[in-house]
Amino acid sequence: MSPNPVNAGAQPEHPADRRRAADEARRDLDKSPYQLLADVHEELLRGDRPVEQNIVHAWKRIASLMARTAESNEQTTRRIIRLTRVIIFLTVVLVFLTVIMIVAN
Asked: Would you kindly state where each structural domain of the chain is located, as residue ranges?
């Protein structure tokens, strides 16, 4: 019986494997995209295991690269939203000050 991916809070079927996977994912997310890309190439070029295993390991690195990119995009989106709010606030202040100046004259 495989774990249900929808129920993220469920107990993993193999806790030791889950811990090892979480540790590896954490290490990968600390790497730069360049390092992850180099890891993909390194996994593909390894000669000490069958090509099929190289491909499987490379896909793990590609998934990490995609997660790292998504995380970076999420941070950028939050910054853009924060800056947009600042711009809106400053625009409101400028409109308010303009109205005061027009009324004062």
From this structure: 16-104
